[in-house]
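We modelled the chain as a single entity of 289 amino acids. Its sequence is:
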Amino acid sequence: MSNTWIEAAINGRWGKERQPGSPTTVEECIEQGVACAEAGAAIVHVHAFDPAADEEDDDADVYARIIEGIQDRVDAVVYPTTPSTGIGVDPTVSAEERFANHDELGRRGLLEWSVVDPGSINSTTYEAVARDEPGDLYLNPEEHIRKGLEVAGRHGASPSYAVYEPGFIRLGAALADRFDGIGQPVYRFMFTEDFTFNYPPEPYALTSLRRLLADEAGDAPWMISGLGVDITPLVSEAVEHGGHVRVGLEDAPLGTEKTNVEWVTHAKREIEAAGGTVATPDDVRSELS
């Protein structure tokens, strides 16, 4: 079996109000990112925040402080997000504005991975349906997807594709062939228990997504991940089939009592119990080169 990557998604757009253990200050993001790397995570994904407002702050300078702060202390692939469109955000934001932080971080040599989500979804929870409250739209127009890939290609970054629906695999694979210079895309299968998109974390669902990916993108690397979900029941299946694992407070059910480090430690135990070994950052870079 190949080495299994662990990615720690340490906060997400939730803020402390909805996910109390999430780091929001630069210092908290650095401390938790370092702790997750020391616990076994080769990759750290982070959202920068304005902690006073408990809202996201997409300024490249803030991201640079977090990325450099973590990498000054540990070796890890650390990568930022992009502003969401349609989820409480002005849907008219341009593709250039949306990927400006990635472009600037790339100019500074701080963009190993990027976020490019190849499709749009209704972002609706079962609880909202029960309350008859319409959900949000998570918008990724193709113009934005192409801009994200253009920026990734300019800086040699690997796009992290969040696969919220199976069609995201097909569009992501088709577009990746159109852009020179991008690193190998990583396909993150987005399972959920709380939302209505994609699949629940069940083996049949993983089999379906793996087969589609093999048809569309060959042996491209993939990860199990999601939102509002405990993904660890699928870890043994992922290890068996050469996949990778993302955990953390962005993906976990809201209100979880586990810390980011506890999610990483749990994933590492599950990987090793399944006969896998935990990858280092150099293992990840080597596989994507």
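As a brief sanity check on the tokenised model: The longest strand covers residues 186-192. The two ends are 19 Å apart (CA to CA).
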